[in-house]
Design goal:
Elements (H helix, E strand, L loop, with lengths): L11 E4 L3 E4 L4 E4 L6 E4 L21 E4 L3 H4 L9 H8 L3 E4 L7 H10 L6
Parallel strand pairs: 5-6
Antiparallel strand pairs: 1-2, 3-4
């Protein structure tokens, strides 16, 4: 008889400076909420369908978003977050540095130590 193995994939990891961050390079289905959805993280460990490039070699418009679970888009797919919708409406690319379950202190550290290193 084959036994079913239940597995759990996490999207959050420990970070010694921020406290926690998203796990880099993950694509997973979030099963909770009325409509399960997929989320993806980039190599920097933020929810995005693309890797953030430090240098803006193409001159594209970029908008950086920093915040908590609302800005990170908890409960919705990446492309349905307000940050992605606003950026698309303005013809810009969304660099969403938001982190679920974070406070202003963690958001400041993300801004200071991570987001400011991008053009």
């Amino acid at each position: 008889m084959l036994s079913k193995q239940l597995t759990h994939k996490t999207i959050i990891r420990y970070d010694e400076n921020i406290g926690h961050l998203f796990v880099p390079n993950v694509t997973m289905r979030q099963p909770y909420s009325e409509k399960p959805h997929y989320i993806k993280t980039n190599r920097q460990g933020f929810r995005a369908d693309f890797d953030f490039e430090k240098e803006n070699k193409t001159g594209e418009k970029r908008i950086a978003f920093i915040g908590d679970s609302f800005t990170a888009g908890e409960g919705v797919a990446n492309h349905k977050r307000f940050s992605d919708l606003v950026s698309a409406a303005l013809g810009a690319r969304s660099y969403n540095f938001a982190l679920s379950a974070s406070g202003v202190d963690q958001q400041y550290l993300i801004y200071k130590d991570i987001a400011t290193s991008f053009d």
